[in-house]
Amino acid sequence: RYGEKMEAPGGFDTYFGAMPLGVWGHAGMMDNVDTLLNLNVPAGWHVGERPVKDLFHDTGCGPWSQDDANPDFCGFCLRGLNIPQERKRLIPVGAFPIYDSKGNVQITNAPMTINPFFLPSKEKETIIDAGTRITHNVTSIDIVPGSAGEQQYLIGDSGNVENRQRICKGKESIVYKFDTSDAIGAGLEARIKGEGFKFEVSPDGKRWYQRLDTWDDKIGSQALDLSFLTGCREELLEIMSINSENDSKYLVENKKSSVQRGYSRYVEKDGELIYKLPLPDAAECHLEIMAGNSYKIQYSSDGKSWHDGVDSSQTNGGTDAAWITMLDVSDCMKDKHTVYLRFTDGGSSSLFNGRGAFLQKISVYGTLNSGKVYVKISNTDKRNTFILNGLTFKTWTD
What we know:
Helices cover 10% and strands 41% of the residues. The chain has 4 helices and 23 strands. Strands 5, 6, 7, 8, 9, 10, 22 and 23 form an 8-stranded antiparallel beta sheet that branches. Strands 11, 13, 14, 16, 19 and 21 form a 6-stranded antiparallel beta sheet that branches. Strands 12-15-20-17-18 form a 5-stranded antiparallel beta sheet, with no helix packed on it. Strand 2 and strand 3 form a beta hairpin. The two termini are 49 Å apart.
């Protein structure tokens, strides 16, 4: 924008405005474009006080808009035209559809290339007849600080209440507990301000997952989607991560004494590692496994009956090259919510200069559903204060 040299392809600083600039620019909404180009507010946490207006240049309205903004612009233009349709087909992400010139759509569920972060969908497509709307039964709970209705959801009593506002200083926090036993989704909206505050959520009041860390000098709305705590698979949460620093906590068998080299644990011929992963309340579970050389991975819900998982034939890495692969073990969640993982040598070490199989990391992703949701609001620093003006918790069912 100002002729200065910038890193290519621009990174976050130029990318964060690509889509709105593209949509507005193509639509001729130049007032909006001009406002964003001249926005005099800090651009981001890693560029200090440098304002947005100093970071935009032509890539925001040019190359990026070709692949990012055109679909958005198409939808923007078609909105409200009420184009006649006998039915609509809602295709899930990961369906990998094929379209022909006549408009026929074939769902393949088969990607053109293996991508562990873009897995084939297990969902079915939804067909909606003309005039039909998808609706949900929504239950809304409004909480006013200091009211009698707040007490049935408040765990303990933190901070002071003044003028229907709950004020928490330093280490003080607020914890609410909600019932989600019949819900397929949940969301939270808080009216709050503070010098630095965070939201954490939990299925049991013990395991906490941070969802937001922000600040606001005026009472503003902060909204969170908590559906992963009702078993909704639209978001998979990282439940735990296992590596060379903490794997002894989960390792229940180490046959033929594996050797730890750097960040990896190696097993030689006929050796095996067995891990036990306790996953209480998990409704769905996927393992992201980083391993290499010739290996074989099996899984079990009881440590006795083993199912084939993944092996090194599905990757083509070189000697001592770690590759990421994904393994869906959700069927283990039906009974005991426990996953046993057996890692063994695959028997083809000759293809990797005689080096044995190695395991570097296991990341566990999934959804949780305990029938309860705990929400904790606290300051990010003991010098901070936040003020909660009110809170709305919503759940929905089919």
